[in-house]
From TrEMBL:
Heterodimer of an alpha and a beta subunit. GO terms for biological process: carboxylic acid catabolic process. This is Electron transfer flavoprotein subunit beta. The lineage of its organism: Bacteria, Pseudomonadati, Pseudomonadota, Betaproteobacteria, Burkholderiales. Its cofactor is AMP. Residues 23-211 form the Electron transfer flavoprotein alpha/beta-subunit N-terminal domain. The electron transfer flavoprotein serves as a specific electron acceptor for other dehydrogenases. It transfers the electrons to the main respiratory chain via ETF-ubiquinone oxidoreductase (ETF dehydrogenase). One of its GO terms (molecular function) is electron transfer activity.
Amino acid sequence: MKIIVTVKRVVDHTVNVRVKSDGSGVDTANVKMSMNPFDEIAVEEAVRLKEAGVATEVIAVSAGVAQAQETLRTALAIGADRGILIESNEALQPLAVAKLLKAILDREQPQLIILGKQAIDDDSNQTGQMLAALGDMPQATFASKVVIADGSAVVTREVDGGAQTLSVKLPAVITTDLRLNEPRYATLPSIMKAKKKPIETIKPEDLGVDVTPRLATLKVVEPARRGAGVRMPDVASLLERLKAEANVL
C-alpha cells in the first residue's frame, strides 16, 4: 500500500509572530520555520503504518517556496521514502493546494492520504475536506486512532460530544488530530540518510493547475492587548462589578 502524507512549512510554533508595518501580513524575515505540528503527526502515523507492514511506501508532498525542501527533508528523516515539492511563490490557498494534491494523487494512485487537520498559520481546516471532494473519496477528519484492515480504515475521530468511530473504504483521506500519536525526534543517522533520499520538484503548471489566489487579504492587525486585571476585596464587590459590566454591555 502506498501512502501520501502532506507537510507544510510554517512559522515555528514557539515564535511570537509580528505583523508587518504596512499590515499586509505576518513578518517572516529571519524567523524560524518548521513543519506544521499537525503534519508531524500525519508523517508519524504514515511511518508507523509502514513499520507495521501495512504500507510499502510513504511519499511526503509539500507545496510552497523552494525552502520547503527543508521541511520535506525532515519528513524523510522521520521515515518517509521520497518527497515531492510543488514549487510556487504564490500565496497558496486551500483550494489551490487541494487541486495540486489531486493532480499528484492521479499520478501516484495511493491507497491512503494523510494530512494534518489544519495548519497553524491560517487555521483554515479545509484542504483535506476539499481534496476528498475533488477526488470523490471518503474522508475521516480529526482522527485520534487509525486501524487499517481488509481494504478499509477504521478511524476514531474527535467530535464535540466525545469520539466517533467510522469505517471508510480505501482509498480515503484522513486528517490527524493531536491525540493520534506523539511524533518522534529524527535521529542523526536518519537525518544523514534523508539527505540521500530523492525529492522531485515540479511546478503547478506542470500539473495543469491554476494557483492564482481567489481571496485577497485586506489587512492584518495584531489582537488588542488584554487589559490589566482588577482585584476585588470581597465576593459582594465582585458581584456588583459584574452586574455593572453586564448593564454596560
